[in-house]
Amino acid sequence: xxxxxxxxxxxxxxxxxWTRPRGLLDLTxxxxxxxxxxxxxAAALALPLGAWLGHSGRGSGLVVAISxxxxxxxxxxxILLLATAGLFGNTAxxxxxxxxxxxxxxAGAYDGVRGAxxxxxxxxxxxxxxxxxxLWRVEVPLAVPLVAAGVRTAIVxxxxxxxxxxxxxxxGLGQVIQLGMGTQRYGQVLAxxxxxxxxxxxxxxxxxxxxxxxxxRALRDA
Amino acid sequence: MPGNPWFSWSWVADxxxxxxxxxxxxxxxxxxxxxIAATIAVPLALLVVRRRRLAASVVGVAAVLYxxxxxxxxxxxxxxxxxxxxxxxxxxxxxxxxxxxxxTLAGLQSVDPxxxxxxxxxxxxxVQVTARVRLAAALPAVVSGLRLATVSTVALVTVGVVVGYxxxxxxxxxxxxxNFHRAEISAAALACLLxxxxxxxxxxxxxxxxxxxxxxxx
Lengths: 222, 218
Hints:
The structure holds 2 protein chains of 2 kinds.
Chain A: H1 2-13, H2 15-19, H3 24-56, H4 60-72, H5 75-84, H6 89-114, H7 118-126, H8 131-161, H9 174-182, H10 186-214
Helix pairs in contact in A: 1-10, 3-6, 3-8, 4-6, 5-6, 6-8, 7-8, 8-10, 9-10
Chain B: H1 9-14, H2 16-48, H3 52-66, H4 70-81, H5 85-109, H6 113-121, H7 126-157, H8 168-177, H9 182-210
């Protein structure tokens, strides 16, 4: 075990490992770009749909069913199936991670808009707001904390899921783990695992600050 | 690619034995992981629930651990515990534990203090209060935690293939290596979904049977 640890430290201490082309810095960049693409695409579809369903009060059963079943969906299988269709590596991973993130975002947007204070909604209606006005100027701002929490969860989970891409020839930090497993260099495996975990924590921390900033002042607790 | 259908009943029929073996492995691993996690999580939650600071930090640590990616966790455990079933089981227990702990604590914290006072007032001792009031009141939350943990564990087992033990994940990966055999991957994925669904329904039914008071009868 200690030799594995020493090997991991030696690996992480080698500047060339970080800075060479397709080194750790490149892979981290790739990892983040893939995350952004996946969550961005999923958000473009899921957030408006969730907000609209929440606003109209329709489809609650659908939302619950989708967010429950999707938990059981093995991302690995989606990545591998897309690969068999000729979609290798990064594209397949972005799609699979998007499929993975969409239900979380959908549920967040739905619950957020659905749970907006009834009295506030009625008051806006009484002031003569149009349905779109109610949605945009009352329900959406009230939903921001839940939506932001959903986005944060989705992004962190996607950062943690992208490593699976390496199993189907994709990029990102999973490559380090996959390569280490293949060549039985467990120090490198450990280093890769620690790096991905650290990236998750850093991203989560940054997002926690961002979440606080986008929450309307009146809705922040103390 | 002709001759490589997305799904094939004949593959399922021809490989029924293999599919059953892998599903059985998958099921056992899931049940074992969730059971171990539950035996740790429920007593731990009871232990920390009355100490607010401690409860908050336990939930915080659990949330941080939950962000560790599965591939990375299995990969980190592999050099320590070797290749095979053990690292997968340990990883699965860790993830299930976090979900169960959070849900159980939330359930225990939501118990109405007036109800606890009333129980003490009618002469219940601390053990009875815990067993017959606290735990009973938290039961719905625990059951929903168990459902969540079980369903996500079923999906997570497949990733165990990277350290050599993935249940149905094994089939997915073999199908991929075996000339991109789609039928094998999709059959394994569907078996996974079906397994998760059946376990979820079973837990839902068990929870319903255990908490008859949550059903309003008029």
